[in-house]
């Protein structure tokens, strides 16, 4: 415990725990001092006022601590992104994935790939000086290119992952579609357990796409309520229907709501989607669904059938988000760089290529790996990553 005073007036500001940490074994790699003062806003303000008056001291910018840690080699860029994901993780699945990336999961793998690539590149480059004397690649180079082929295969395999990692970050998108008055908004409200969407007996109530994020057994789900599909002349409703079709087409799962016969004004169907669950609505009315036999039935009023629907969604989420192994790629940025590296590796492997060109393709693959982990640091990439942090991280 230390007494913190204003050096100008001698006034006591707080009794605080002050902890010093010697670099380079700290989060930033620099020497650090932490003040653990009492949490009242006036205390914090007074301490900050006195500290920032001292020459050379200022408040950190957003993400500055993490940025210094990165610049001092304490963590790679993918780990920085993992940390950002950890701070914003809302479900258990997202937290687990973020902890893994913050701990250097993809960074470690990419560094291992890069090390192998550099070895092969060194062998190809060492052969360059003697290229005139011997057009046939020697054994060393053949072995090196054999490893590059294996590397390209590993990259390809890592990229065939159904984009699980990215999906887990943003959540599984589940679009609710169907004819007007089918009970789409009522179902959204029932699943969200809040009064999110307007429900009325007038067909064509919903126009905009409404989004609600839910946590279903640890998996993030983004539910979309959409405008009822029907033929109409109303330009506002037409725009709503266009958005509904658009969002449903790109959603991971589509719930097609089937109202009881006579309840829905239109039977216009939704075009094919690989993941459709047909849900009969208004089950409390003891309904007849005619020829449109649904997969399951629910009532937003009596809540009958909601639990089976939630289980079904949880099961779909587990299937689409968790897969067999932990996802290596969790961001579009990672995917772009790995795809670029893979392309360059295959290019380097093409037949009859002069050794200089082969080496150049391998170098470019290495640059793509380097961009992923932040070893090669175009300012705009770094700026984009760090600006998502809050101050104090
Ligand atoms: N009995 C019964 N009525 C329901 C149920 N779900 C919705 N309704 C009624 O059906 C009508 C339409 O419900 P909404 O949820 O607004 O339907 P919607 O599909 O969102 O309709 P649009 O936004 O117009 O496309 C309202 O009068 C609801 O009260 C249900 O489970 N049981
Ligand atoms: Mg609605």
UniProtKB/TrEMBL annotation:
Query: CDD domains under this entry?
Result: trmE, TrmE_N
TrmE-type G domain residues are: 171-318
- Any note on cofactor binding? Binds 1 potassium ion per subunit.
Which cofactors must be present for this protein to function? K(+)
What is the annotated localization of this protein?
Answer: Cytoplasm
Q: What is its main location?
A: cytoplasm
Key word Endoplasmic reticulum present in the record?
no
Q: Keyword set for this entry?
A: Cytoplasm, GTP-binding, Hydrolase, Magnesium, Metal-binding, Nucleotide-binding, Potassium, tRNA processing
Q: Which residues hold Mg(2+)?
A: 185, 206
The record's section on InterPro entries has: G_TrmE, GTP-bd, GTP-bd_TrmE_N, GTPase_MnmE, MnmE_dom2, MnmE_helical, P-loop_NTPase, Small_GTP-bd
Q: What class of enzyme is it?
A: hydrolase
UniProt-listed Enzyme Commission number(s):
3.6.-.-
Q: Which residues bind GTP?
A: 181-186, 200-206, 225-228
Q: Which GO terms describe its cellular component?
A: cytoplasm
Which PROSITE patterns does the record cross-reference, listed alphabetically? Answer: G_TRME
A single MF term (Gene Ontology): metal ion binding
Q: Where are the transmembrane segments?
A: none
Q: Which GO terms describe its biological process?
A: tRNA methylation; tRNA wobble uridine modification
Function according to Swiss-Prot or TrEMBL: Exhibits a very high intrinsic GTPase hydrolysis rate. Involved in the addition of a carboxymethylaminomethyl (cmnm) group at the wobble position (U34) of certain tRNAs, forming tRNA-cmnm(5)s(2)U34.
Q: What is this protein called?
A: tRNA modification GTPase MnmE
- Species this protein is from: Amorphus orientalis
